[in-house]
Every structure is written in structure tokens, then in C-alpha cells.
Amino acid sequence: MSGTHKGTGKIGVKTKVMKSLLADVMCSATLSACSSSTASSSKSTDGSEEVIQVATGQSMAPFCYLDADGNLVGYDIDVLHSIDEYLDEYTFNISAMDFSTCVVSIDSGAADIVSHQLGKSEERKDCCWC
């Protein structure tokens, strides 16, 4: 897979998307390391797909929010759907909630990953979130 369009020298859209997906996956993987349990993920009955429980926000436009029809939309959601389509062995079950519930969900093991525009902070330093 080439990262440039032929003759333009510009990074291709597919490469940008893949880099963005990788960054989100890396952040989510780091966040999931804080989880006390990963019991919420489960194999499907035929063993081919693992269901990943994803906690995300519902009021942080343009990243993760509910549109006028109540649909979960935004950049984070688009990235999650793209990763879900790309990785055949996983299925994401995305649940919208407020930020504090996302934190509780990851700490309790109810969620495997959190996607909610998390950033590095002193408070999270000891938790290995960032």
C-alpha cells in the first residue's frame, strides 16, 4: 500500500485514515490496560469474531454526539466503524454514555475500550491511560 498518490507527493487518504485508526487503536489499547477485567469481550459461538464493548460519549461534537435523530455520530464514531469494518475478527458494540460512566465502565470491566477524546493529564498518569 503506497502512502502517496502517483506523481503528487501527497499522502493518500487511505494512508491518513489508517494512521488515524492506528492512533485511536493505540490510545484505546492503552486505556484498556487500566481495566480491571476484560470479561465483557466475548467470542461468538463459531469462534470467528470477538465482540469488543466500546464506551463512548454522546455530547462532545464533533467527536461523539447524538444527531437530531438520536443517532450516534462524529469523528470517533466514524473511526470506530472504520476499524470495525477493517478487522473481520472483531465486532464493536458501541455504547453512548457520559464521560464519568465511560470511566466507570472501563474500570469495572463493562467496557473493553473507551473512545472519548481522552487526553494526557496528571490525574491519568498513574492509571496508564496516556
Element string (H = helix, E = strand):
HEEEEEHEHEH
Low-confidence stretches: 1-10, 26-40
Query: Main β-sheet, in a few words?
Result: 4 strands, mixed
Termini separation comes to 30 Å
Number of helices: 4
**Strand runs, count:** 7
What's the Cα radius of gyration? 16 Å
Instruction: Estimate the strand proportion.
Output: 15-25%
Query: If you average the pLDDT, what whole number results?
Result: 74
Shape: globular
Class from secondary-structure proportions: alpha/beta
Helix content: 25-40%
Sequence-ordered SSE layout with sheet pairings:
Blueprint: H1 13-32, E1 42-43, E2 50-56, E3 59-60, E4 64-66, E5 72-73, H2 75-86, E6 90-96, H3 99-108, E7 113-115, H4 122-125
Parallel strand pairs: 2-6, 2-7
Antiparallel strand pairs: 1-2, 3-4, 4-5
